[in-house]
Amino acid sequence: MRLNRRYIGPVLAAALAASAIGCIGGESPGPSDPSNPTNPTDPTNPTNPTDPTDPTNPTNPTNPTNPTQPTQPTLSEWERNLAARNTDYGSAMRTAALKLVGTLPTLAEIKDLNAATDKKAAYEAQIDKYLADARFAAQIQAFWRDTMKQGGTINNVNYDTAPNFAAQLTVEDRNLTELFTATTNSCPTFNAQTGAFTAASCTQASPSKAGVLTDPSVLRQQFSNMGFRRVRWVQETFVCTKYPAEVVAPQDVGGAAKYTAPWPFTSISGTANMGRVDFRDTQAVVCANCHATMNHQTPLFINFDMNGAYQNTPQVRLPTAGTPVVTLLDYLPAGEPLSWRKDKPTPDLASFGAAMAADPDVAECFVARGWNFAFGKNDIVNSLALVPHEVIATQVAAFTAGGFKMKTLLKQIFTSDDFTKF
């Protein structure tokens, strides 16, 4: 059968029309049809440009490309981890009890915390009780023993006086900078059973008294050639860093390494200016990077003998042939000032202690040591258990403004989010 060409056009047109209107369904899309791009009410229509829930709709407030959507900060991995922590006062109390009184919480303490409506207030009240407990005195005395690296009685010499004084200042919530400025009662005794301190002055005839800086047991334990061990103890214990203590932009002084201290290179002694030890040597390392500060400090301590007693003449010796007694010229050229730091002259130990008390690095060191105590870290210097400034900036500011009170600081640390969140 031959197809009549007269019917091809109309048939094809009808077929196309049927296809266009959905010949299988038989109807054109209505206003509720999800395929209708003009349907303003159908939330399931993914192509509806007016659908407010459509993630591609620029007016959708959850659309990250929506110009009206506030920009969300990008959090680092650490920030996300911190934000994911949850408060757990029970766990915090267990750790706090071990640190502050040396035992786990009692069953009654645990039940009281669990039953409390306001757990934050109940936890903070328990921290107050721990800090007022006689056992806290023993715990903090042990902390200061570890910090100062001395304690006990050896050959009838009591090495606990400095740790006792620091512990007493902590327990009584006094200004901790008295460690460097006290002129009396800086060698107390301590009864570990009762937690009681008994005031006592050091047996020291020094013309300038400055707390633990003139404590005979400290000076005895830190006795060494030229007395450098004494200032190293001061630096590491109370500034929390090793020497060099002062660092500025490197300078070329003709050696293999650069000179980084703020003092003039010629401000300390060398063999070129009558010194018997060449502190300006640069053949291997630049000795002056550390000694620029050390040599301006150490002469304040050289008149204390091997027993820590003050004498009218230098008592420490050079590590050279014959071990001669030092003179001031072994450290500094004539006329060079004694100083805690560059531009911080301290002609005697009293002014040296006052300069330490005013140094913000010393305040931050106290806070960092308190922080590491709470969190069970090792020694900040020996183990490099450093605490970034940003972590403790709030506590440093409060500690400084509040009169350098260690007990108050410890409560702030033990009740902080960082301690109570896990």
User: How many helix segments?
Assistant: 16
Mean pLDDT: 88
Largest sheet data: 2 strands, antiparallel
Radius of gyration: 37 Å
Alpha-carbon distance between the two ends: 88 Å
Low-confidence regions: 1-28
In the sheet with the most strands, the strands line up as 1-2
> Could you estimate the helical fraction of the residues in percent?
25-40%
Beta-strand fraction estimate: under 5%
Tally the beta strands. Answer: 6
Quick description:
The protein has 422 residues and is mainly alpha-helical.
What distinguishing features does this structure have?
4% strand, mainly alpha, disordered N terminus, 422 residues, two-stranded antiparallel sheet
How would you characterize this protein structure?
With 422 residues, the chain is mainly α. Among the domains are: 89-132, no CATH class; 225-358, no CATH class; 359-415. The chain is 39% helix and 4% strand. It is built from 16 helices and six strands. The strands form three sheets. A two-stranded antiparallel sheet has the order 1-2. Strands 3-4 form a two-stranded antiparallel sheet. Helix 3 runs parallel beside helix 5, helix 4 runs antiparallel to helix 5 (119-132) and helix 13 (360-375) packs across helix 14. The longest helix is centred in the C-terminal third of the chain and has 16 residues, at 360-375. The protein is globular and about 75 Å long. The model is unreliable at 1-28 (pLDDT under 50).
